[in-house]
Amino acid sequence: MKIILYIIRGHFVLIYFFIKLFTRQKKQVYLLSRQFNSPSINYQIIIDELRKLNIPYKIKCKKISSSINDSMRTQGNYSNTFNLLKKISTNLKGALSYYFSLYGQMVTIAQSKVIIVDGYNLPVSLLKHKKGTKVIQMWHALGAIKKFGYQSIGKVDGINPTVARILKMHANYDYVISGSEGMNKYFAEAFNVPIEKVLAIGTPSIEFLKKKDNKITKKIKEKYPALKNKINVLYSPTFRNEKNYNYEELINNTDFTKVNLIITNHFKVEERATDPRVININSNEFQTFDILKIVDYVITDYSALMIDAAVINKKILLYVYDYDEYKKNNGVNLDLLNDFPTIAYQDAKKLMNVINKNKYDIKAYHEFQKKYTPHIKTTSTEANMALIKRCLDE
Description:
By secondary structure, the chain is an alpha/beta fold. Helices cover 43% and strands 13% of the residues. A six-stranded parallel beta sheet has the order 2-1-3-4-5-6. Strands 9-8-7-10-11-12 form a six-stranded parallel beta sheet, with helices on both faces. It starts with a helix and ends with a helix. The model has no long low-confidence stretch (mean pLDDT 89).
């Protein structure tokens, strides 16, 4: 595997050397994502602000194929080049499409003064950029409940150490955006940067969450009229490779005379709960952020969605039925069961009784909000734009 990784690295280093040689840098912002095929809420808001200020920008959103993503993880156990190529070849069209898209990315990176990414980007982290280039990591979540990046290297669900080292995972960042001071330490560890580079200014998505959108809310309730009459509970678990989400345990302990149980899935998950009493909202039609606004409770697990929910005062409960296994295979930054014993549960019956019997611990919830939700003097959008403008001028 090392051979092919070194070939990939040397190949791109050589190409980028000549690209830089014949490319002039501009006061331009380049927004890059391999998480999504269209701009995220964060990127949409940043673009709107750039347009208002007449700041030139370019954007590239191209979701990486799962075969490429999986080949970077420890669990793949690709001990030799043959196995690695075999895995990538399962989606050869996607792999080739991603490969050729990197050429265009390298050209625009060389042209741009400020680069914004929302995850790992190969040319951004791997290559040496022109003097004065600034890279901002605007991670797609406000917090790091579960370990990721450098924190999870070598773990079952983490990145393969050899891949991380040779392809320089999460390198070249000048600034990393965090959701709160309480998360700075974990972001610094995950991105392998000094904590001074981590800025607890939140992301523009915070303003989107706080903004009332009565049209969308009305549209959701018209499409799903049952949502008008009961306590609305959203279950939205994080992605798991083994695809076990324990839907049935929650369903069996839900009092459907009082509660609407809504289930949304991670964008990588195709499985759906089949019980007719469950409301499966189409994530292609309504964003999770929109759904958050119409619910009373949010049940998740190790997802930073709990912070998004807390930002707009939605009560959170954590269903961590696989806590010991998850800590071993991936790792967590917060000791959920000990730190939040009245919010985090391994048992579905005990968790649902909190809702069914109206026994929510509001004091513990407020303590969570105080520590892990953003508290800044200005808005997150203003703070991020001030950072971008400063980087353009340096």
